[in-house]
Amino acid sequence: MERKTPNIQDIARLAGVSTATVSRAISTPSVVSEATREAVFDAVRRTGYQINLTARNLRRRRTGAIVVMVPDLGNPFFSRILAGIEHVAAPAGFSVLIVDTKQPHAEEGQLFTYLHNTRADGLISLDGSLPRALLERLDGSNGLPPIVFACEWMAGGLFSKVVIDNAAGAAMAVRHLHNLGHRRIGHVRGPQGNVLTSARLQGTRAALKELGLQIVPEWFFDGDFSLQSGVAAARAWLALQERPTAVFCASDQMACGFISELSMEGYSVPRDVSVVGFDDIDIARRFIPPLTTIHQPRNDIGAEAAKLLIERIGTGMVAAPAVHEVLPVELVARQSSGPAAPLVPY
Amino acid sequence: MERKTPNIQDIARLAGVSTATVSRAISTPSVVSEATREAVFDAVRRTGYQINLTARNLRRRRTGAIVVMVPDLGNPFFSRILAGIEHVAAPAGFSVLIVDTKQPHAEEGQLFTYLHNTRADGLISLDGSLPRALLERLDGSNGLPPIVFACEWMAGGLFSKVVIDNAAGAAMAVRHLHNLGHRRIGHVRGPQGNVLTSARLQGTRAALKELGLQIVPEWFFDGDFSLQSGVAAARAWLALQERPTAVFCASDQMACGFISELSMEGYSVPRDVSVVGFDDIDIARRFIPPLTTIHQPRNDIGAEAAKLLIERIGTGMVAAPAVHEVLPVELVARQSSGPAAPLVPY
DNA sequence: AGCTAGTATGTAATCGATTACAAATTGCAG
DNA sequence: CTGCAATTTGTAATCGATTACATACTAGCT
């Protein structure tokens, strides 16, 4: 048994060549002669040699890793996006490093070490609320790694991003409800200050206005994308004197929480109120009733973001213009939305 | 603007000391004099110097990263476990690297490069079906990194693991149904060959036997933990002449799929059949009806696994005996399970 | 003053690869 | 047989930190 893992020197000795040749045989086989190549590969096989990536990366001035910043790892919404990222990054030779930005240890100082280019060659952020100060120092300008946002983004358009048309999605949801005959439509918002919240809110407002429907402030409920906040919205809905007959929730999780709470209180969806979600998470089609929602291609978002980032890393990340990719959304009509009840209760 | 990021030499020059002193000022501040320390820190501040982790890691012969192997990143069951791992690993100075073992690129050869110690200092696997051949070469013996399994594990007890008592959990579920008066109890299995599948199946069988209930083969449905397989099990249940009055599903996802499909066919839970799940995923408490299930402390599982691994990495990973940690599960009774109907229909 | 112990710093080797440059070898045309 | 280009290989510098060892200096004691 070896005392330690073999290194390139050991291979060189065994194959009777220099380390330079070993390196070449491994990285650019075409430039070494048939015979030497075989000798080297044979030595590699015999020893089980594995290249030391740390050393290679040091010399090549790269890390072979990309960091993904996730607002909340516990939220299943992100799982498929991560899968999409991993699906593209791994074959391209990049490891995927994940950071939960909402963890207490992820304060500005800590985050910066992740962004720094000795840790990763690039960064994908699913969190649009990273401290500005942090990012201004980044994105290629100072030799620091390129950044791509996905799902969420930062105002200003400075950074590349892969997103969906949130306003359009929201408008689709509202129009769908309108088509079903609903004229009193409410909305459960995402968390304050979130870009998705404002985009979906704005889309909702615009569609309501366009359809000539009134915008009733009491019908706009606070939320934060979580199940629990959907529950809270349902309680608020129950407390209303005049209730909207349909509610568009800015996330499926909130829609589930909303329906669940109403159901516990003896109300039924869509009989008593129609509900539309946003995201099309896995459970949506199997919720009871199955959720009408705006489908987001989560896998593709992750994959596209990774593709974009890796491209940037490859091109020496010179201050290329930011790319803004917008992926399509579609309405998936299921059973949580139905025709509006006649104006006068039967 | 600098042409490139500053390195330790630049700091040394600026502070008027040697690189050795800079290194010491940063890693072990107590051994340098007050004055020098200040000079160094000042230079660091002025330049925005960030240590090059690749170089440090090369010299220290470590990577500062741990790899987590996830059977299916798209499955939300794993999200909280990842969060638990990240929560412990990040403050301890380890980055978390994730690999989806079910991706096509994750073949044996590829996987091995992840396991190799130039990539990571240790490995947490949530996948109990890694190729044996792969693992036999690992776990400290050859200077390769230590491994901890979490949730799933590999038969043989060679590796450390953090798990729950799956058989006990299954037995709790069965006993709960028995207490409610059910005498005809079925089970939806996990995927073939999975350790969780067999443990939960075995626990189910044992409890049935202990309670003097019959074990009817037709009441044991195939599944693979997914929503869709729960749907399939529901169809199988519907097709039966003699149906069990209660079904224990080996995962919440299957339980949701099962209930959902029955509901679409006009059946209602728990009126027509009681259902118990396993895992207590986030949506469980908000499903309709809220799911009775076996609660797994997913966050803790991840955190414990990370703690264990990091400990091992710290102690130079000499062939320490494998540690097998078993975390407690508990039954959470909600509304998907109810009293058995009287033997003769009303 | 002379000696010891302790503190602070510098010199240079080292981690394990990559690669610019030089040198050696081979092939072939003239 | 000579000369030149093309191919293959080796030498040694390099990436950016850490650390063993050596050295310089200070303080305290006899």
UniProtKB/TrEMBL annotation, chains A, B:
Domain of life: Bacteria
UniProt-recorded Gene Ontology molecular function terms: DNA binding
Name of the protein in question: LacI family DNA-binding transcriptional regulator
Cross-referenced SMART domains: HTH_LACI
InterPro entries documented for this protein: HTH_LacI, LacI/GalR-like_sensor, Lambda_DNA-bd_dom_sf, Peripla_BP_I
Transmembrane segments: none
CDD domains linked to this entry: HTH_LacI (cd01392), PBP1_LacI-like (cd06284)
Any Pfam family hit: Peripla_BP_3
Domain HTH lacI-type residues, every copy: 6-60
Keywords: DNA-binding, Transcription, Transcription regulation
